[in-house]
Amino acid sequence: MLSFALHTALGHITLADRSPGMLTVLDAKIAAAGLPHLHPLALDLTTDPLPAERYDLIFSLMTLHHIPDTERLLRDFYALLRPGGWLGIADLDREDGSFHGAGFTGHCGFDRETLRAQGLKAGFSGVDFSTCYRMKKTTDQGTREYPLFLAVASRLE
After folding, report:
1. Which of 16, 63, 84, 131 lies at a CB distance of 3.0 to 4.6 Å from 43, suitable for a disulfide?
2. Is the pTM for the entire model greater than 0.85?
3. Per residue in 1-20, pLDDT tens?
4. Which long-range contacts (CB under 8 A, 24 or more apart) does 43-52 make?
């Protein structure tokens, strides 16, 4: 969704996903919208080797909390960026587990300082945070508000 919203401001966009079904949906949406500069890529960064291509910008929306090894993913993002490249991650602030509910095995959001430390350890020169949105969601406990952060990091070298 984010790539479709940003496509007029960006050039070539690679849309990585591990789900064959999602890649099929992407192909159809790209064809229907007539956006030949969007390119789906079957990729699971938790298991697949890194692709050879390097990028000027990597962005992610509400994905990081589903990835078990956040530190490894941040190292991989760093490796995938060209020198001077940028990383943008929008995701959940630390929450009590009610966002996904019982049985969810991912992260219940993130502590910003912990994630900042992981980004610096991965090699990023800085990791800056802002609150970019407050999502309202109906849960077992009624309607709740969940703050989302935007983390922006750069690779200088």
Report:
1. 16
2. yes
3. 899 999 999 999 999 999 99
4. 43/16, 43/17, 43/18, 44/18, 45/16, 45/73, 45/76, 46/18, 46/72, 46/73, 50/76, 50/79, 50/80, 51/80
